[in-house]
Amino acid sequence: MINISSIELSNNQHNLLSKGLSFVLSGQVDSFTTKVELLQFFINITLKAFYSKDSVKTPSYDIPECSLRAAQKIYEPSNVRIFKPKSTFVPQTNQAPVESFCRLVGQDITELCTQNREQKLYPNLLGSERKALMELMNNDEIVIRHADKGCAIVVQDKSAYVNEIKTQLCDRLTYTLLDTDPTFRFGQEIKDTLKHHLHDGRISDNEYKYTIKDNSIRPMLYTCLKFTRTWKIHLDGL
Predict the structure, then answer these.
(1) What are the residue boundaries of the structural domains of the chain, listed by start?
(2) CB-hemisphere CA count at 13 Å for 107?
């Protein structure tokens, strides 16, 4: 943990940040999220079992040489289109071991969720560390982020962080001030272009569905600190 802010951190705050930004407080298990992730896990197992080599019987036929040449031409790298929407196919497997495994695991997870709701929770932070957490959360004068390289956590003044962002945005050679958010307009232009290519047969229906995005996400600008071996600090905008 590296503190370059003007605020001196206490030992409890330092120990808390040393646990990492991915540290999670103890709490009740989210049963709904657990069931969703468990269902996705079962789907993945079912797909692996369905497409496993042992369960696929490949018949042996005498294929004419002309058919082989035609197949090779069709599946040349330049002719294969790999862009397609994510499949939602869920096979029905009749393999008893897979069904038994999913059923038993589901029962065990349900039982663990029930026990978690009934059992008393024990905190994984000391009282002083919880107090330090609240102090850091309520401190609007600092920014806590990961460094650009490695797993170091950097604490810096919020004013310096904001000034760096403003300095980068004031670079008119790189950024242009806009009156409105162009995200929707850009998305509509991309959609119209893709529809034109789809109509002309330049892309397939799967490629169109794969490329099109109904809910566009605006990018976020932030800065990361770089530390060299001599602990010299660099600010890079992403």
Answers:
(1) 28-120
(2) 5
Q: Which two tokens stand for residue 34?
A: 């657990």
pLDDT of 229 reads 53
3 Cβ neighbours under 8 A, 6+ residues apart: 9, 14, 154, 155
C-beta neighbour count of 105 within 10 angstroms: 14
The 8-class DSSP code of residue 143 comes to: E
The whole-angstrom separation of Cα 31 and Cα 110 is 8
With residue 236 as reference, give the H or E element that holds it: strand 233-237
Q: How far apart are CA 175 and CA 170, in angstroms?
A: 7
For 128-183, how does the pLDDT look when each residue is reduced to its tens digit (9 = 90+)? 989 999 999 999 999 998 887 767 888 999 998 899 888 888 888 888 888 888 88
Residues 6+ apart with CB under 8 A from 225: 2, 4, 145, 147, 148, 154, 156, 233, 234, 235
162: Cβ contacts below 8 Å, ≥ 6 apart:
none
Count helices and strands (H / E) in the chain.
8, 5
Q: Do 227 and 152 form a contact (C-beta atoms < 8 A)?
A: yes
CA atoms within 13 A on the CB side of 40: 5
Residue 166 carries which side chain, given as an amino acid letter? K
- CA nearest to 49, candidates 88, 85, 102, 87: 102
The number of beta carbons lying within 10 Å of the beta carbon of residue 63 is 9
